């Protein structure tokens, strides 16, 4: 889970203000299986990642979208 926390934090911290939601959503899509399988709530994951709780909806959207999209090879 540490890798997911780091990835979510980096997606939030290293994005332009208009891209933060999108990047948190993409990080959620990429790590959906691990996030769903963890016993942590989305709020707990965001707290551990140092991302504001207001991004819970973005994570939820990413998890739902993960059922319908594939991550391109080479996507960081």
The oligomeric state is: single chain
Report the structural category.
mainly alpha
What is the string of SSEs from the N terminus onward? HHHHH
What Rg, in angstroms, do the CA atoms define? 11 Å
Number of strands: 0
The percent range for helix content is: 55-70%
* Percentage of residues in strands: under 5%
Number of helices: 5
Low-pLDDT stretches: none
**Biggest pleated sheet:** none
Describe this protein's structure.
This protein is globular. It has helices at 2-13, 20-30, 32-37, 42-49, 56-65. The protein is an all-alpha fold. The protein has one domain (2-65). The protein has 5 helices and no strands. Helix 1 (2-13) packs antiparallel against helix 2 (20-30), helix 1 packs across helix 4 and helix 2 packs across helix 5 (56-65).
